[in-house]
Every structure is written in structure tokens, then in C-alpha cells.
Amino acid sequence: MIRENLPKEILKHLTVVEMKVILKAISKPVKGTKDVLINRIQTHASDEDIRNHTDKSCFVLTELGLEALEKYKNVLWIHKNKRDIFRYPLFYESKFDEYYFMNHWDLDPPNTLIDYYESENSGIVARIYQIENNSEKSFLYGLRKLTEEINLQLEKCKEVGWFNTCRIRRISLPSRKSGIRRTSVL
């Protein structure tokens, strides 16, 4: 799935100073931007010249590795985004993780999660739409989640009788137009 790089594949990971060392060794000009230096090295330096003047190496995906990444791109998506989607404490309670999508590699993570959480947790759906750059739906589901939270807190207040401590009293305030009575909460 991976292999060690070929000498010319490391060039984009070298610094300008490291590229200038290679160019000096093969007696070529050292002035120019990084892209110009890379092009000059690729044109004039052999693999042996590059190996002799740099000790850096990296690993490169093989064709099989690229195919695996394409096949399991949903696993990469959930790994990259799950902390943003399932904030604490949901992060530890979610049934959707890399293992789930590894076993269901043909599913589309955003749509799967939206379908599952749409009626359960508007906040998760809002964050998924935000990750998918759908600001309008993200805002609407975020607003829905906020409304759900406000309603939940109001219900809790009703349960403990907080609203029963308020008295509504009618106060007659003179009005310039007519004798309209106004109601005030004390």
C-alpha cells in the first residue's frame, strides 16, 4: 500500500536551501523560486545526485493504496470530522465511528448521519451541514436545536413550579387616547 519514495518524489518536501545544495553539486544555477529549482533539479540531476545530497525520505502511496483510500474515503471523512460532529458527551456515545464505516464502506457518511439524527438531534445535523458547507441548512438546524433547548428549559421550569411564583396583576394605567387597561407582571 505504501513504498519508499523515489529520489525525485522527495523534491517538493525539500527546503530551498537543500535544493540549492543539490544544484551546486551538479554546477547549475541556484537562483529562482522553489518551483523553478525543482524543475531544474528534475531536468539536470540524476537520482544518484539527489540521493547523495539529501538524507530525507518519505513514503508514497502505491496504486493499491490509492484504491484503498478511494474505497474507504468515508472512513477518512468520519475520522476527520467526528470530533466536530459528536462533541462531548456524544463523542463517546456515538454508534458511528471508523469501524462502522469500514464495515459499511459503500455508505455516504453525511447523508447516513443526517438521516439517523434528523429527528433525534438537530445540533448534530447542523454541524454536518456546516462541514458540508451548506450554511443555510446548518443555520436552520442550529436554530431548531436552540429552540429545542429553550423549550426543554421552559418545561423544567414548569416542573419545579418556577412559573407559579409569578403573579399577574392587572394595573390600570391612564391612557391619553382612551381608558385602555394594561396588564403587567410583577
Automatic annotation (TrEMBL):
<dbReference type="InterPro" id="IPR036361">
    <property type="entry name" value="SAP_dom_sf"/>
</dbReference>
<dbReference type="InterPro" id="IPR003034">
    <property type="entry name" value="SAP_dom"/>
</dbReference>
<protein>
    <recommendedName>
        <fullName>SAP domain-containing protein</fullName>
    </recommendedName>
</protein>
<dbReference type="Pfam" id="PF02037">
    <property type="entry name" value="SAP"/>
</dbReference>
<feature type="domain" description="SAP">
    <location>
        <begin position="11"/>
        <end position="45"/>
    </location>
</feature>
